Hints:
By secondary structure, the chain is of the alpha+beta class. The protein contains 4 helices and 11 strands, in the order αβββββββαβββααβ. The protein has 2 domains: 10-57, no CATH class; 61-203, Nucleoside Triphosphate Pyrophosphohydrolase, CATH 3.90.79. It has helices spanning 10-16, 101-113, 165-173, 180-193; strands spanning 23-32, 37-44, 50-57, 61-66, 73-80, 85-89, 92-94, 115-126, 137-147, 158-163, 202-203. A hairpin with a 4-residue loop joins strand 1 (23-32) and strand 2 (37-44). Helix 3 packs across helix 4 (180-193). It starts with 9 loop residues before the first helix and ends with a strand. Residues 1-6 have low confidence and may be disordered.
Amino acid sequence: xxxxxxxxxxxxxxxxxxxxxxxxxxxxxxxxxxxxxxxxxxxxxxxxxxxxxxxxxxxxxxxxxxxxxxxxxxxxxxxxxxxxxxxxxxxxxxxxxxxxxxxxxxxxxxxxxxxxxxxxxxxxxxxxxxxxxxxxxxxxxxxxxxxxxxxxxxxxxxxxxxxxxxxxxxxxxxxxxxxxxxxxxxxxxxxxxxxxxxxxxxxx
Length: 204
């Protein structure tokens, strides 16, 4: 079974987890912005009591591990206002309404970095903030790259550079790289390169 396949035991696992489930009683929108929505739900706990849960509804996103022939990776430096820091990250972006994961990955890689890829592979998904958001990030790998002109969104400012996996590991160890999606991408890349987690590539 590949890393992206769903376990056949999932229904039985859900039955086993019935004593942990929380069921929605009411659900209210507290705030609706440009792309996120803040909701406040009342839920029924397994013991029958009720309690509030506040969380962000997110449209979902993709992250791209783009690999160059020399083994280096395409990366970005971008200021992230909520944490008031410039972060080292793999290219990533939000899904547009009705947009598929591959189409979003192709668009974001081209817009942010100028690269287009001829070969793509979906590695899996991750839930980056399970305590307070619905966000799911699809993890995509890209290779056979060609470089063109970037097409940044209005108000988007970022630097594009390349680095090796070993450099990223050094930066993670000394605290310069703390972005969780990028760290997950690094782990997946390491597993792929070791042959433990193969990818199914498609030409586009």
